[in-house]
Design a protein that fits this description.
It is a single chain. With 94 residues, this protein is mainly alpha-helical. The protein has one domain (2-82). The protein is built from five helices and two strands. It has helices at residues 2-8, 13-29, 51-54, 60-79, 88-93, and strands at residues 39-42, 47-50. Strands 1-2 form a two-stranded antiparallel sheet. A hairpin with a 4-residue loop joins strand 1 and strand 2. The radius of gyration is 23 Å and the shape is elongated. The termini are far apart. GO terms for molecular function: ATP binding; ATP-dependent protein folding chaperone. Keywords: ATP-binding, Chaperone, Nucleotide-binding. InterPro entries: Chaperone_TCP-1, Cpn60/GroEL/TCP-1, GROEL-like_equatorial_sf. Pfam families: Cpn60_TCP1.
Length: 94
């Protein structure tokens, strides 16, 4: 998603996304670098920045709802186990 946004913003997507992934990897592997997990892209300036300091916060509730709705949709699809099939006689009538 970050790559698509950077490309659409006409920025150097490869460099920006590589830096962002490096920050996130460091945040996940080193306990003293947890603050790097809030890094994100500033596509106006074309830089990687700390989103918390910039005031950009993604609400967890919206992500939870997205996951919940996707799960419910998958369950609904999996529940449909009947196939609707026309008899050979009915196919010619329509």
């Amino acid at each position: 998603m970050h790559l698509v946004l950077a490309v659409n913003a006409a920025k150097d997507a490869t460099e920006l996304v590589a830096k962002l992934r490096a920050y996130h990897h460091t945040a996940q592997t080193k306990a003293d670098k947890q603050h790097l997990s809030s890094m994100g892209l500033d596509l106006v300036k074309g830089v990687v920045r700390n989103n918390l300091e910039a005031g950009v916060i993604e609400p967890a509730m919206s992500k939870l709802k997205i996951i919940q709705f996707a799960t419910e949709a998958a369950i609904t699809i999996l529940r449909i186990d009947d196939m609707i099939k026309l008899d050979k006689e009915d196919q010619g009538n329509e």
